[in-house]
Amino acid sequence: MKIIPAVVVLALMCPFAAAQTANQPLRIETRPFVTLPEDFRHPESLATNPTSGEVYVGSFDSREPATARKNQIIRLSPTGQLLARADLGPTPITGLAFADGAIYFLNFGASKLQRLPGDFATGHAPEDVASFGALSPPAPGDRLVANPDGSQDRIVYGSAGFPAINGVEFDTAGNAYVSDSFQGAVYRIKGATTCKACKVEVLARDPLLVTTGALPFGANGIAIDEPAGLLYVNNAGDGRVLRMPLSGGKLDVLAESIYGADGLLLHDGLLWVASNQVDAVVALDANGLVRARAGHFDGIGPDGAPLGLLCPAATAVQGKRMLVANLALPLTPREGDEWEEKVTRWTLVQFDIPAMATR
């Protein structure tokens, strides 16, 4: 889907929304969708079946010791009822994507792209699609930063060679694109929906894909604009949205100051970014300008679940609404400084997507 200029976005919105966004971003309120099962912790990834409307949620349970973890992918009805679950034990899950009748997921702990049938039943074992390993060299190179006084900084990155696979997206030909947060890479797996002994190739390797920010994750969510031949990828630690040619090439910065830019979704000409450290989902136009902002944090409810958004990590479109996963994952070693520490039940929330005319 091609990104369209801001002025066209405004003209396509309903009159009230257009008036609201002429000089300011549109504010969108969220509302609850579902409280997840009691044993489901930290929903990090989210996808929907565009035909049935069913919802898939992956967990990022990284507790220590690893034996305490209960990672899983759950399948929900379009209204949020639990239909099935796949137990993945100690290995956390990051990206989810629905393609060719199957749900694909990044098994972060096992460094694999795996899949399940779209209608999987409880107990169904996942199938391996591709494996990721250490790159050589393990770090993508140095980053040069120009300072206002004319000087220049050189950031030298290190890496232990762990493939921190994070975001996954598919193009219409069934090729999968995967981000690597630690090794600063974007991978492509040609024909991932049909290949046997699938090969992982490095599409991009760049210091813009790693970070020295407070958040340790660099390259994160991925979105694809096939008509424009562009691939977008978030850098969570840098708070940036980057773009590059879909066929490979130079990265450049589309937007900055979106702290904790996590999940990324392209819908109706806008890039929707889950900003996990701002407790919001923001929509960017073709210039990288924030045109809409959904949600805010309103506290912890009596059931131990977040009210509103708390560390949102992923979004998915379901008809005319957008679903959001509240990761609510504490990130600092210090106790008592994050609302996420008080969460005992995890949720998905929803909001209505601003009305757009058919183009």
Structural overview:
The structure is a single chain. With 359 residues, the protein is mostly beta strands. It has a domain at 132-259: Neuraminidase (6 Propeller). It is 4% helix and 44% strand. The chain contains 2 helices and 29 strands. The chain has helices spanning 6-12, 15-21, and strands at 26-28, 31-35, 43-48, 55-59, 71-76, 82-89, 93-99, 102-107, 112-117, 127-131, 143-146, 152-155, 165-170, 176-180, 185-189, 201-205, 219-225, 230-235, 240-245, 252-255, 261-267, 270-275, 280-284, 290-294, 297-300, 306-308, 312-318, 321-326, 347-352.
| Estimated helix fraction | under 10%
Per CATH, what is the topology of the domain at 132-259?
A: Neuraminidase
- Overall CATH class of the domain at 132-259: Mainly Beta
Beta-strand content estimate: 35-45%
Poorly predicted runs are: 1-21
Sketch the major β-sheet: 5 strands, mixed
**What Rg do the Cα atoms give?**
19 Å
CATH architecture of the domain at 132-259: 6 Propeller
Name the structural class. Answer: mainly beta
Provide a concise account of the structure shown.
With 359 residues, this protein is mostly beta strands. The protein has helices at 6-12, 15-21, and strands at residues 26-28, 31-35, 43-48, 55-59, 71-76, 82-89, 93-99, 102-107, 112-117, 127-131, 143-146, 152-155, 165-170, 176-180, 185-189, 201-205, 219-225, 230-235, 240-245, 252-255, 261-267, 270-275, 280-284, 290-294, 297-300, 306-308, 312-318, 321-326, 347-352. It is 4% helix and 44% strand.
Give the helix/strand layout.
Elements: H1 6-12, H2 15-21, E1 26-28, E2 31-35, E3 43-48, E4 55-59, E5 71-76, E6 82-89, E7 93-99, E8 102-107, E9 112-117, E10 127-131, E11 143-146, E12 152-155, E13 165-170, E14 176-180, E15 185-189, E16 201-205, E17 219-225, E18 230-235, E19 240-245, E20 252-255, E21 261-267, E22 270-275, E23 280-284, E24 290-294, E25 297-300, E26 306-308, E27 312-318, E28 321-326, E29 347-352
Parallel strand pairs: 1-24
Antiparallel strand pairs: 2-29, 3-4, 4-5, 5-6, 7-8, 8-9, 9-10, 11-12, 13-14, 14-15, 15-16, 17-18, 18-19, 19-20, 21-22, 22-23, 23-24, 25-26, 27-28, 28-29
Helix pairs in contact: 1-2
